[in-house]
Amino acid sequence: MLMHMLSRKFFALTLPALLATVALAPSASAQAKAKPPKSVRLYVIDNGIIKDPDVTRFRFKKEEIAVPDFVVCSYLIVHPKGTLMFDAGSIPDANFKEGVTPTTLNRFIANKSLKSQLTQLGYAPKDITYFALSHYHGDHIANSNDFAGSTWIVQKPERDAMFADNSPIKEQWPLVNKLQNAKTKILDGKDFDVFGDGTVVVKGAYGHTPGHQVIALKLAKSGQILLSGDLYHYREERFTDKTPVFEFNGPQSLAARAEIEAFIKKTGAQLWIEHDLQLYRTLKKAPDYLE
């Protein structure tokens, strides 16, 4: 009887502690660190949508665009020798609150934070070797400062514009200011082979912004893919001379498009328009991947 009472007392005292320990312990998925793959992997990260953009700002009539809403996504590229994060979403992760879905910011709507999706894959920002933005517009830079510990790959005219006294994104400096002192690989428009084996190449495609850039990938099974940033916004824009009314340099953009289209014709690469919701619906999304 005494042993029974003592056992009950011990159980009553220890159960809360055990429950607290379980509650505080990280999940297995959060603890698991991803191992380097044998070949390059591409993860498509869901950063939400931009609802009802004004298509006239892209020099189209409403009836000319089949799907006007934009998807917002970013990409985690995982190479046997390291990782590259391309773009950083439209809503800062700090805006996401537990139990509140979706999270909205102006026309931006998202259901998942960027870092929560990286965690699911076994990565944290500190694990990212390289960080690159296609360009400095607000729907691509929201979580940039989280990657200030990575090597920032940026075109010189883009970086110069971002941190100039009259910067077009001066009001958004709090999202990117830590990059100013990050370890940086500054490019001048020439191709940069990130891992030295031709599988991940950053290419200048100036015009949308002073130093807009794209990434060409060679995947073992999925073939070549061109992540085009905002070289185009709509699939209907391709093979036209239309550029947005807010383009930094329209003629420069058209020249960049011609170069990229020639590259695609030569290599047979798939063109991925980052904001193309129709395309996005057909893609594998993280935690699935292309390889």
Low-confidence stretches: 1-31
CATH architecture: 4-Layer Sandwich
Residues in helices, as a percent range: 10-25%
Query: How big is the Rg?
Result: 22 Å
Q: Describe the biggest sheet?
A: 8 strands, mixed
CATH topology grouping: Metallo-beta-lactamase, Chain A
| Number of structurally distinct domains | 1
Overall strand count: 13
| Biggest sheet strand line-up | 4-5-1-2-3-6-7-8
Give a brief description.
This protein is α/β, with parallel strands linked by helices and 291 residues long.
Write the layout of secondary structure elements.
Elements: H1 2-24, H2 28-31, E1 41-50, E2 70-79, E3 82-86, E4 103-105, E5 108-110, H3 114-121, E6 130-132, E7 151-155, H4 156-162, H5 173-176, E8 184-187, E9 192-193, E10 200-204, E11 213-219, E12 223-227, H6 250-267, E13 270-272, H7 277-280
Parallel strand pairs: 3-6, 6-7, 7-8, 12-13
Antiparallel strand pairs: 1-2, 1-5, 2-3, 4-5, 9-10, 10-11, 11-12
